[in-house]
């Protein structure tokens, strides 16, 4: 019997490659970074060849001490909502427009003229927004017509790697649901949506299930990655949905949150959750028969990363001198502040916002600065601001009668015990910290691979992989503060929307 499952998680900052045993043990992992190219305020691109190079280098590193003939399957998790235009030979025709790219605002307006927001939302499970892959391809057609004409297929990040490994032009339902071109109920490309966006049907890749085998590793790809040809390549899924599998959200009513660069809350349900204000959206699920209602903010963990990079250089230097992480020092400062950050609010809209605001012009802000404000209050306010924003998503789910008592939290932000306690207090639920914080997404891809090739019978195998190491329970003493602060947070956002619009004129 084959011993290993190889999974790649193609994120925004780099590729995390992981090797799991079929018994659920993480054997080895490594990360290879790549650049994000930002221009014109909200144009965000990455080089497809950087994705491929990261996969090749990391695969070679992972397999150097094993017999590659023992690999049962390879699969992928990848950043969603992107657009990679490739020709018939599989060559990328331009840089990838990734999830954070918000350039397609004119295309958004054009779509609104052709279909009602309500019809669109109920067809796709999503709002009309420049965030999605279909709108990005529409922008390419309108602004780079030669590239559009030469585009054979539009792919997402992981699908491009599957193409490089197997020669197959495919996607699966979860990533397809991030294009705004998939009929979520029928799980097929929507002729109506393609017509609305003016996109040719033949430019869309073949649709498969996440557990389907897309193809096998070719001789050329095997040589590039240090593998052997013939290894099955299972489709996998978008990162948010693979994270659901990796946190055990494979049955009705189980929720998880990721505190990564972008941050989200998702819950597994049998039917989409349609919010009248369209603050949340719904992905297709890896597990058949389910969907994944979600609210994803653009810059959750990213807000904390920005703050610690730009405003915590002293802590970085002090940490180096003391041989500790700057994050350990900041953790002390957060705990030295108090709930409510001494009356300071942070709006975490550093790259516009998706759910729950859906405003590409939104900006970040500290509100309530005064002479007595200390850095400890500012760093706590950043974590609380992210929690308040995601708390709107929680309110949507609760308003639809969805009961959430426990939530597993993953991602880099989950390393902060202070942040986990803030989440427990703001949401008033138990927050669970699993054994794998950074690997849950690739774990979901590995489990999907195992199910796809029959190593595992079904997704219940998650019990082999996932263990809860710590649970944060709500501190009732903090409830009055957060109950009072959250409405002020919402009021602050709405009060500043006009200011955000005006400031956007200075950053074009």
Automatic annotation (TrEMBL):
Its EC number is 2.7.1.17. InterPro entries: ATPase_NBD, Carb_kinase_FGGY, FGGY_C, FGGY_Carb_Kinase, FGGY_N, Xylulokinase. It comes from the Bacteria. The keyword Transferase applies. Pfam families: FGGY_C (PF02782), FGGY_N (PF00370). One of its GO terms (biological process) is xylulose metabolic process. This is Xylulose kinase.
């Amino acid at each position: 019997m084959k011993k290993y499952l190889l999974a790649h998680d193609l994120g925004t900052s780099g590729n995390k490659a992981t090797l799991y045993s079929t018994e659920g043990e993480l054997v080895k992992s490594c990360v290879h970074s790549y650049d994000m190219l930002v221009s014109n305020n909200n144009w965000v691109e990455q080089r497809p060849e950087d994705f491929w190079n990261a996969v090749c280098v990391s695969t070679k590193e992972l397999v150097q001490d094993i017999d590659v003939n023992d690999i049962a399957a390879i699969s992928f998790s990848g950043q969603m909502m992107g657009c990679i235009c490739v020709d018939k030979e599989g060559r990328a025709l331009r840089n990838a427009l990734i999830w954070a790219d918000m350039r397609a605002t004119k295309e958004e307006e054009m779509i609104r003229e052709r279909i009602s927001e309500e019809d669109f939302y109920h067809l796709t499970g999503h709002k009309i927004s420049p965030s999605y892959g279909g709108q990005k391809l529409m922008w390419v057609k309108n602004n780079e017509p030669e590239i559009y004409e030469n585009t054979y297929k539009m792919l997402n990040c992981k699908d491009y790697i599957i193409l490089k490994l197997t020669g197959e032009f495919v996607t699966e339902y979860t990533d397809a649901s991030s294009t705004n071109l998939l009929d979520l109920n029928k799980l097929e490309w929507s002729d109506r949506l393609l017509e609305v966006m003016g996109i040719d049907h033949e430019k869309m890749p073949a649709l498969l299930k996440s557990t389907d085998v897309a193809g096998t590793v070719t001789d050329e790809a095997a040589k590039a990655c240090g593998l052997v040809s013939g290894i099955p390549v299972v489709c996998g899924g978008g990162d948010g949905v693979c994270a659901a599998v990796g946190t055990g959200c494979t049955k009705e009513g189980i929720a998880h949150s990721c505190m990564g660069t972008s941050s989200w809350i998702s819950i597994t349900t049998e039917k989409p959750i349609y919010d009248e204000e369209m603050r949340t959206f719904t992905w297709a699920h890896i597990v058949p028969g389910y969907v994944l209602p979600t609210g994803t903010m653009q810059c959750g963990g990213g807000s904390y990363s920005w703050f610690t990079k730009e405003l915590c250089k002293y802590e970085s230097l002090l940490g180096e001198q003391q041989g500790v992480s700057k994050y350990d020092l900041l953790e002390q400062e957060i705990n030295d502040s108090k709930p409510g950050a001494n009356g300071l609010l942070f709006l975490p809209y550093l790259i516009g916002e998706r759910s729950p605001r859906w405003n590409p012009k939104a900006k970040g802000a500290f509100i309530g600065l005064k002479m007595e404000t200390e850095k400890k209050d500012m760093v706590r306010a950043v974590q609380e601001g992210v929690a308040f924003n995601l708390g709107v998503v929680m309110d949507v789910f609760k308003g639809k009668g969805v009961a959430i008592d426990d939530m597993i939290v993953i991602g880099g932000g989950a390393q902060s015990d202070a942040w986990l306690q803030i989440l427990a207090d703001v949401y008033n639920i138990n927050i669970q910290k699993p054994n794998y914080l950074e690997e849950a997404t690739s774990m979901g891809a590995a489990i999907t691979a195992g199910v796809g090739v029959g190593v595992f019978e079904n997704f219940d195998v998650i019990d082999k992989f996932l263990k809860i190491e710590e649970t944060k329970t709500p501190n009732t003493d903090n409830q009055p503060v957060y109950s009072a602060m959250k409405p002020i947070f919402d009021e602050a956002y709405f009060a500043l929307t006009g200011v955000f619009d005006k400031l956007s004129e200075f950053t074009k």
